[in-house]
Amino acid sequence: MIQHDIYALVTYALKTGLIEKEDKIYTINRLLELFQIDTLEAIEVEENKEDGRELEEILASMMDYAYETGLMKENSIGYRDLFDTKIMGQILPRPSQVIKTFQEKYQKSPQEATDYYYKFSQDSDYIRRYRIKKDVKWTAQTEYGLLDITINLSKPEKDPKAIAAAKLAKQGGYPKCLLCWENEGYAGRLDHPARQNHRIIPVTIQDSPWGFQYSPYVYYNEHCIVFNSKHIPMKIEHGTFCKLFDFVKLFPHYFVGSNADLPIVGGSILSHDHFQGGHYEFAMAKAPVETTFTVKNFEDVEAGIVTWPMSVIRLKGENTERIIALADLILDTWREYTDEEAFIFAETEGEKHNTITPIARKRNGLYELDLVLRNNITTKEHPLGVYHPHAELHHIKKENIGLIEVMGLAVLPARLKEELESLTKAIAEKKDLRQIESLEKHADWVEEFSKQYEGLETLKEEEIMEILKKETGIVFGKVLEHAGVYKRDEKGKKAFMQFVETLSK
Predict the structure, then answer these.
(1) Reduced to 3 states, what is the DSSP secondary structure of residue 482?
(2) How does residue 283 score in pLDDT terms, banded at 50, 70 and 90?
(3) Do 80 and 63 form a contact (C-beta atoms < 8 A)?
(4) Which of these, 32, 320, 331, 443, could form a disulfide with 245 (CB 3.0-4.6 Å)?
């Protein structure tokens, strides 16, 4: 069977353009070497004719063989992920060839280049299509527009054997983190993913070398990561705004943004300077400006407060240098800004609290920069953060509110899939949620929103599930409200304008 699998994989590689017909025999021999096979039987196969199996099935069969023959130590997710990536590494072009093709297509158009690279990242199994399909996704209508909701199932659960083996493994510190360039082609280990099927596109940002790649978990269309070639910490500063616009000028069909540079509000990896972007329009980008204002000496830059649960200032104009200059002023002012009445403190006990989450894009011929005001102060009442989802929302979302959530996409924990399904059944069967250990945390929530739905328990299960999805979206809207430093009431709006007025002083 392994010989059939080798032919099937080579046919897949030819069909997807991962190899050319001139590479066929060479690729077959590389796979024979990997599986420690000396000879190949003449199998009757039609040129470029697929055997009807998806890539996942072909690789699964190959890994079963590898385990049976002792080439793969354990038949677990951790070991299988390492080995199937190794297999794919045998059929991919070298980085220089991928870069060359990308650059050739870029000369025609940036979008043609990214279309090629995104498809390549999927065909190479770097983005595992079959896992991404498992993610549960829907949209929920809220007062802030249509929010995106995702229950993340694409990251595999770590198996106990892999965890135990990883603890015993020698810690080498290479690559330094998951974003370092040294990941390209790396064989991986149980505590670090294999990346033989990974190729990085070099780009120049602010006259320095950066890498462009896609996220293997693609939370939204063409979810990309742009990272510094050096392993240096993230920092929101003047250079950040310059870099964001440099990227948008290279890829005007993409937005790009940065996580905040402080713990709690930072979201993802803070140890490596990077941005996230993609070919997608989030709810926040669609949200209108509700209050316009002009900053002294910046009359040429349109500015306004966005209708959004978090506190967002949108700058717009033709000249990115002028937008950046105003963004610098807003950042510098916000870093030092304290308003005790609004419970905003620039620092306490020497710890800085204020920062910004910036997002850049080009729309209708103008450049836009959204600046989301963030603060990471904690109290005894809110030990995870005052401007963080509060305890009553933790049954849905407890994790940090990073860039992706800020823009209107909830990345919810995997546990929620099963919990919402169990909740649906329990409501339909009129069970007491407080008596069910796994669902008890949802009882107050269900009790509250049930008042809006007369005879909820009499509905069909699929109807109950739709209501749960809708209400989950509403909770996510509240999560973002909690993360907003200025609340959406009159008092909050007044305090927000007080900050805005300081920009002209």
Answers:
(1) helix
(2) very high
(3) yes
(4) 320
